[in-house]
Design a protein that fits this description.
The chain contains 4 helices and 22 strands. By secondary structure, the protein is α+β, with helices and mostly antiparallel strands. The two termini are about 70 Å apart.
Length: about 350
């Protein structure tokens, strides 16, 4: 009985082993090919291509700029003293020449009045001595002393008048005044910040571009720019270019001016500036994803026959979608666009 069971179990195990063998040891194509003496062949990679054609390209360069007031001044006193009057409201528009701050000048006014009284006496003395000189009653030297006294008091009066002017701060131009940092009764000197005034009916945008683009930019070039939080594109014209290259970053600073009559653009905002460059003739424009960075430049893959071939290229510029190629391609080259991650020299491809 036991012998019969052993035989039965052996038969069952043998059948299971026969059924499981193909799954445990599958017959591979590589083995079959090897049995025939051949090598395994990888399937061609499916790709899409663009045909290189020379064309004229309108290019531009992007820059980050800073918006500045057309004119801006931080107000400080020219003399020290106590503020007796503030003639502006924070955030208001002020006209050129408007008195903004008055500092106490009582002592100077008293000195001026005294000098004016002395002037009258000096004038009378000089007039009398002139008459005596004409009649030979006094010497030329005596007359010259009286004339010198008169000229001296006139000079003192002018000094006092200028000192009194320094007790006033007036608007140097029409603009918008900012926050004040003093009050009536405050004691100020030349280091005291009083307020700032800015002219913003026009604004300036200062930005920089790499030195290689400067030859394609000139005064009068119109640029476009946007600022954070405003869904609008603004236009400005370049009016000044720094006549030297920054030796640290190899950039050149430019300034453009823009109308701002509604006051929506404020100094200090960052601007994204788009600067148009001269049109380029005879360049190849291919999709950005087809260009592969390498240690010393960039390369693309072109189709030769049924294989991918590496081709080193020179890139001149780019935008969000395309890259400008100025050398390394020929008209009619089929540049691989998709499947780049699988590409290497000699890979078989199909369309």
């Amino acid at each position: 009985m036991i012998k019969k069971q052993i035989i039965t179990y052996s038969v069952i195990i043998a059948i299971i082993a026969l059924l499981a063998y193909p799954k445990i040891f599958p017959k591979s194509e590589a083995g079959a090919s090897g049995a025939k003496g051949g090598k395994p062949t990888a399937a061609p990679v499916k790709v899409s291509v663009v045909v290189a054609q020379k064309q004229s390209v309108s290019s531009s360069v992007q820059a980050i700029g800073n918006i500045m007031a057309d004119e801006e001044v931080e107000l400080h006193a020219e003399t020290q003293g106590r503020i007796t009057k503030i003639g502006f409201t924070e955030g208001a528009l002020v006209a050129k020449g408007k008195q903004l701050i008055k500092i106490y000048d009582g002592d100077l006014q008293a000195q001026l009045n005294k000098a004016l009284i002395n002037k009258k006496l000096k004038q009378e003395t000089e007039k009398r001595n002139k008459q005596l000189l004409d009649k030979g009653g006094i010497s030329q030297e005596a007359y010259d002393l009286s004339l010198t006294d008169l000229n001296s008091i006139n000079a003192d009066i002018e000094i006092l008048k200028e000192s009194i002017k320094h007790t006033e701060i007036v608007a140097p131009f029409s603009g918008k005044i900012g926050l004040k940092y003093v009050s009536e009764g405050s004691f100020v000197n030349s280091a005291s910040k009083i307020a700032s005034i800015q002219k913003i009916d026009k604004i300036k945008i200062e930005f920089s571009v790499p030195e290689r683009y400067v030859a394609q930019i000139s005064n009068g070039t119109e640029v476009n720019f946007t600022v954070e939080g405003i869904q609008k594109t603004f236009k400005a014209k370049i009016y000044a270019i720094e006549p030297k290259v920054d030796v640290v970053n190899r950039n050149v600073v430019l300034r453009a001016i823009c109308e701002n009559s509604n006051g929506v653009l404020l100094p200090g905002l960052f601007a994204k500036v788009n600067v148009p460059l001269n049109d380029k003739e005879g360049v190849f424009l291919i999709p950005t994803q087809s260009v592969v960075p390498i240690l010393k430049g960039q390369k693309v893959f072109v189709v030769k026959g049924d294989s991918a071939v590496e081709q080193k290229v020179e890139v001149a510029g780019r935008n969000e979608l395309n890259v400008e190629i100025v050398s390394g391609l020929k008209t009619g080259d089929s540049v691989i666009v998709s499947g780049i991650i699988q590409m290497k020299q000699g890979v078989k491809v199909k369309f």
